[in-house]
From TrEMBL:
The active site is at 94 (charge relay system), 136 (charge relay system). NADP(+) binds at residues 274-279. PROSITE patterns: FAD_FR, GLOBIN. Residues 150-261 form the FAD-binding FR-type domain. The record marks 28 as: Involved in heme-bound ligand stabilization and O-O bond activation. This is Flavohemoprotein. GO terms for biological process: cellular response to nitrosative stress; nitric oxide catabolic process; response to toxic substance. Is involved in NO detoxification in an aerobic process, termed nitric oxide dioxygenase (NOD) reaction that utilizes O(2) and NAD(P)H to convert NO to nitrate, which protects the bacterium from various noxious nitrogen compounds. Therefore, plays a central role in the inducible response to nitrosative stress. Consists of two distinct domains; an N-terminal heme-containing oxygen-binding domain and a C-terminal reductase domain with binding sites for FAD and NAD(P)H. Its EC number is 1.14.12.17. Binds 1 heme b (iron(II)-protoporphyrin IX) group per subunit. It is an enzyme of class 1 (oxidoreductase).
Length: 403
């Protein structure tokens, strides 16, 4: 791209800030109307909630603002690349996306979308798409190594275990009995399902909830119930209700860049809310094995003990390891919880409480509901924790955590 094209793209940043979500909403509507087969890849729930539109708008804005230095947003590109690889996004999908994205820009901006602007965006999109394709191609190649695979592979559910009132674990082994690829603590797999009564294939990503180097993968899935007790999580609820021991599921190779750093020995803090504890359990199990002399603070928030998965597992680890500190926060503890003193704090996790029990010089990892994540991120920054020591994971499209 020449300087003239770069300047034109940068000049559209204010417009993208104002009308980005309108453009992406229009884009998805047009693309799915003309290519309904892509609904077999995209998350329908995120579409309905507007989360995907918002996430794409943010990505386009970031790309436009950094079009002359895409390396500045390389971490974001890689995060998206991991998700794309686990979903099965391929190079042939990018021209389709580009066609309807450009049409959406032109239709939403109307007369402001001059020929010069549209030509610049066509060039810029090709440049951005090539960057994604190159990174994702490397990810596909890496995923195919050492027991890995490129797309989806059949796995058998060899064990199904209820962990709490709402969370159930599924232990998965490859149907062909061959080697499976290793993974990094914090990574996820995608589950692809054809669900009775649903027209399209559904794909959802679930964090791996056990340590690596085993002959199985484990995911721990929350039953998602929407308003008025109407099912909200199509795949999650189907797993709970209809997938049992001996059944087959389609699984992607592990992916994701929210991973545990074991290269130094700073104290490590793992904070989770609800089902956000799944990657934290993987990290905790790994730390106990690989770095038993590293101080660990494991803090979990749940409604009460009935909703608290892996409680006994973490408690047993705590009893065996002096450097593991285990603290629990219950929003509405039961009477039995109160009688047995099975928690340290009632209500919600708050920064003042965390500051009273944690070292500020530590590696912080957290995962949970979006409001919970925003509170922690802002609180840790205000406390003076270096951004290099703040690590987090969203389930679903990445939100603006600083909103």
């Amino acid at each position: 791209m020449n300087l003239h094209t770069i300047n034109i793209i940068k000049s559209t940043v204010p417009v993208l800030q104002e009308q980005g979500e309108e453009i992406t909403s229009h884009f998805y509507k047009m693309m799915f109307n003309h290519h309904p087969e892509l609904l077999n890849i995209f998350n329908h729930a995120n579409q309905k909630q507007g989360r995907q539109q918002k996430a794409l708008a943010g990505s386009i804005l970031a790309a436009a603002a950094n079009i002359d230095n895409l390396e500045a947003i390389l971490p974001v590109v890689k995060t998206i690349g991991h998700k794309h690889r686990s979903l099965g996004i391929k190079p042939e999908h990018y021209p389709i996306v580009g066609k309807y994205l450009l049409l959406a820009i032109k239709e939403v901006l109307g007369e402001d979308a001059t020929d010069e602007i549209m030509e610049a965006w066509e060039i810029a999109y090709g440049f951005i798409a090539d960057t994604f394709i190159s990174i994702e191609q490397q990810m596909y190649e890496e995923a195919n190594l050492n027991g890995g695979w490129k797309d989806f592979r059949k796995f058998v559910v060899y064990k199904k275990v209820k962990e709490s009132k709402m969370i159930t674990s599924f232990y998965l082994r490859p149907e062909d009995g061959k080697e499976i690829s290793n993974f990094l603590p914090g990574q996820y797999i995608s589950i692809k399902m054809n669900i009775e009564g649903k027209k399209h294939t559904h794909i959802r990503q679930y964090s791996l909830s056990d340590s690596p180097n085993k002959n199985y993968y484990r995911i721990s899935v929350k039953r998602e119930v929407g308003f008025d007790n109407k099912p909200d999580g199509v795949v999650s609820n189907n797993l709970h209700d209809h997938v049992n021991q001996g059944d087959i599921v389609q699984v992607s190779a592990p992916a994701g860049d929210f991973v545990l750093n074991t290269e130094h020995d700073l104290p490590i803090v793992l904070i989770s809310g609800g089902v956000g504890l799944t990657p934290m359990i993987s990290m905790l199990n790994t730390l106990i094995k690989k770095q038993p002399s590293r101080p660990v603070y494991f803090i979990h928030a749940a409604i009460n003990s009935e909703y608290h998965a892996f409680r006994d597992h973490v408690q047993q680890l705590t009893e065996k390891h002096d450097l593991l500190n285990y603290l629990v926060c219950y929003q509405t503890p039961t009477e039995q919880d109160k009688q047995t003193s099975s928690f340290e704090k009632e209500g919600f996790i708050e920064m003042e409480w965390l500051k009273s029990i944690l070292p500020s010089q530590a590696d912080f990892y957290f995962c949970g509901p979006v409001p919970f994540m925003k509170l922690l991120y802002k609180g840790l920054k205000k406390w003076g924790v270096d951004l290099h020591h703040i690590h987090y994971e969203f389930f679903g499209p990445k939100a603006e955590i600083e909103e």
